[in-house]
Specification:
The chain is mostly helical. The protein has four helices and no strands. The protein is about 75% helix and about 0% strand.
């Protein structure tokens, strides 16, 4: 078939579509849940729940309603928040990578530093810290030479 990428399996295309739909859903939910109206709605639901306590005799079922509701919402929000954080972090990393690659004299390997494992990151951190300390000592020596 012309124009069809045969290297992409059908399940890959469907998972890409699922990912795109989830991303849109997560973004819309994040935008809505961060809106003051969402907070006011949540406060209103809690007030309704509290006011209904005497009607239901503060029963175990009455308590279970709020506990179950908040647990479900919290559980679902964890995944949506994580998705949003992952996307935001990736966007920041991409922007920083673009800046690193665009700067003259910058080390290109820093553009993909987020792909290093923990040991490699620690080694790079020690190296950069040593360079920063050496630069600070040079500046301090230069400044103390100017004042004396």
């Amino acid at each position: 078939m012309a124009g069809t990428d045969r290297s992409e399996a059908p399940h890959d295309r469907s998972s890409h579509g699922l990912s795109r739909r989830f991303t849109k859903f997560a973004q819309a939910t994040a935008a809505w849940s961060g809106h003051p109206a969402a907070f006011i709605t949540a406060v209103g639901l809690v007030i309704v729940w509290v006011v209904s306590g005497p009607i239901f005799g503060f029963s175990d079922t009455w308590q279970l309603v709020i506990n179950t509701g908040t647990t479900i919402v919290t559980f679902m929000m964890v995944f949506l928040i994580q998705n949003t954080q992952n996307r935001d972090m990736m966007a920041v990393q991409l922007k920083l990578s673009e800046l690193v690659l665009a700067m003259k004299g910058a080390k290109d390997e820093f553009a993909s530093v987020e792909d290093l494992d923990d040991e490699e990151l620690q080694a790079l951190h020690r190296q950069l810290r040593a360079q920063a300390e050496a630069a600070a000592q040079q500046i301090e020596a230069r400044n103390s030479g100017k004042t004396g």
